[in-house]
């Protein structure tokens, strides 16, 4: 390996944040993703209901480059297993309701409950978003105060009203999630390191390690046992 630190920096893998955008059909998930990833022009007549979206964007958040891996799903409640899988696969959640739909706000509670259930052992980064805030008199059903109140009630630290149409707070919402993710990731790696130093108890830590690491440990133990039996 080269001893040149700048070369080493160039080849270092970018941190990746896996974000799931969740919200009722029509709340604006696809529009939000297209705006954030491609700065796509807003087009109100172009509503194309989607089952899944997935995109990637390289971004600079607080001068630190990263990859934001984004998936979106409406994922109806009856598909519980799929919903649970999606939650497990992601670490950050952008929960979207539309300010002209009270039922889309009610969906958030339910989805939040599922996140809490699936992520009981870890801390999930969550940002609540009230989209279409450009709709002032045209059928607004949820006030900004009600959105903020729900965020406080669910203990979600991050709340924005957004508008794809007027480009309000779209980037801010994703960046806030990345920041929160970083805090959680740092906290996790620090607490793991200090536990390893203080306890040294492998069995206690095993359940927290990534699968690849567990497989590696398993391989080491098998090789050690094989060597011992040969001696
Ligand atoms: N006024 C306004 N309309 C918006 C905004 N964002 C999205 N829309 C419109 O809302 C409709 C639904 O947007 P989509 O982005 O397709 O919604 P979705 O959540 O992806 O919907 P599904 O794919 O069915 O789950 C479209 O007609 C959009 O143009 C916004 O900020 N303001
Ligand atoms: Mg869509």
Automatic annotation (TrEMBL):
Keyword check for Isomerase? no
TM spans (from-to)? none
Question: Keyword set for this entry?
Answer: GTP-binding, Nucleotide-binding
Supply the InterPro entries for this chain: P-loop_NTPase (IPR027417), Small_GTP-bd (IPR005225), Small_GTPase (IPR001806), Small_GTPase_Ras-type (IPR020849)
Instruction: Show the Gene3D superfamilies listed in the entry.
Output: P-loop containing nucleotide triphosphate hydrolases (3.40.50.300)
Q: Name one GO molecular function term.
A: GTP binding
GO-annotated cellular components: membrane
Report whether Nucleotide-binding shows up as a keyword of the record: yes
Which Pfam families does the entry link to? Ras
Question: Which GO BP annotation is one of this protein's?
Answer: signal transduction
Q: Which NCBIfam families match?
A: small_GTP
PANTHER family linked to this entry: RAS, DI-RAS, AND RHEB FAMILY MEMBERS OF SMALL GTPASE SUPERFAMILY
Q: What is this protein called?
A: Ras small monomeric GTPAse
- Provide the organism lineage as a comma list: Eukaryota, Fungi, Dikarya, Ascomycota, Pezizomycotina
């Amino acid at each position: 390996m080269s001893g040149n630190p700048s070369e080493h920096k160039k080849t270092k893998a970018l941190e990746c944040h896996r974000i799931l955008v969740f919200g009722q059909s029509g709340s604006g998930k696809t529009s939000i993703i297209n705006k954030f990833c491609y700065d796509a022009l807003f087009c109100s007549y172009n509503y194309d209901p989607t089952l899944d979206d997935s995109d990637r964007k390289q971004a600079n958040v607080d001068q630190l480059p990263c990859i934001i891996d984004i998936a979106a799903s409406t994922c109806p409640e009856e598909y519980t297993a799929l919903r649970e899988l999606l939650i497990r696969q992601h670490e950050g959640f952008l929960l979207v309701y539309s300010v002209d739909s009270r039922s889309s706000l009610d969906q958030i509670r339910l989805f939040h409950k599922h996140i809490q259930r699936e992520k009981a052992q870890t801390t999930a980064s969550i940002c609540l978003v009230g989209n279409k805030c450009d709709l002032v008199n045209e059928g607004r059903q949820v006030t900004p105060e009600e959105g903020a109140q729900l965020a406080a009630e669910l203990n979600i630290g991050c709340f924005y009203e957004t508008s794809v149409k007027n480009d309000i707070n779209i980037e801010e919402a994703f960046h806030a999630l990345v920041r929160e993710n970083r805090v959680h990731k740092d906290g996790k790696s620090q607490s793991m390191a200090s536990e390893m130093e203080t306890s040294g108890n492998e069995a206690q830590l095993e359940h927290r390690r990534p699968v690849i690491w567990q497989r590696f440990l398993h391989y080491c133990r098998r090789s050690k046992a094989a060597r011992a039996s040969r001696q």
